[in-house]
Amino acid sequence: MLFGEEDFAKLQKSKILILGVGGVGSYALDCLWRTGINDITIVDYDSYDETNQNRQIGSEAVGELKTEVLKKLYPTVTTINQKMDMAWVEAFDFEPYDIIIDAADTTKVKIELAKKCYKKLIMSTGSAKRFDSSKIEVASIWKTSGDALARKIRNELKKAKFDRNFTVVFSPEEDRCKDKGSFVGVTGAFGLTVCSEAIKKILKG
């Protein structure tokens, strides 16, 4: 067994929350679930669209809610079909979870999450407009570089006089297109990297 009995037991006992199950979050979910973590809660509000089909697990079910489709694929997960906004972050109880994965799209929500649960947080920043998965890095938010979203989050946290560390998965690769565009080789690799970081944190205790 790759992890050994004691470590595998830690994984099986862990509780993970995934915020956003799109191009990054759905691959993180798949990786965690296949590693033996059953107690996973996913939060999302969207339905699948044809434009999701290049990068999101479950997106063949166009028009259906992401949470409902993923519940069929990963039966042990708990689903919350909920729009994530500032009020939701403020009201939600993050305490029961060992790891919180932020694969959400809204910058203000990401910043508020960092303030509220930085000790448990693994945040994914910009994965769109890139195609070189070898450029993906993991660092403290304060050591990220070359990513506009991470830079904005850093700046806003500085303004709020927030100086704590949390883990970020990012890529300094330059944008490869001006308009919207995503490549599953990168968005999926972001999700798998997030999964790997979550497992490392769980095993460290």
Describe, in plain words, how this protein is organized in 3D.
It is a single chain. With 205 residues, the chain is of the alpha/beta class. Helix content is 38%, strand content 14%. The chain has helices at residues 4-13, 25-34, 66-73, 86-91, 107-117, 148-159, 184-204; strands at residues 16-19, 40-44, 78-81, 99-102, 121-124, 137-140, 167-170. A seven-stranded mixed β-sheet has the order 3-2-1-4-5-7-6, with helices on both faces. α2 (25-34) crosses α7 (184-204) and α5 (107-117) crosses α6 (148-159). The protein is globular and about 40 Å long. The mean pLDDT is 93.
End-to-end distance: 20 Å
Helical amount among residues, as a percent range? 25-40%
Strand tally is 7
Provide the succession of SSEs.
Answer: HEHEHEHEHEEHEH
User: How would you describe the shape?
Assistant: globular
Strands across the major sheet, in which order?
Answer: 3-2-1-4-5-7-6
Largest sheet: 7 strands, mixed
What structural category characterises the helix and strand content? alpha/beta
Mean pLDDT: 93
> Can you count the helices?
7
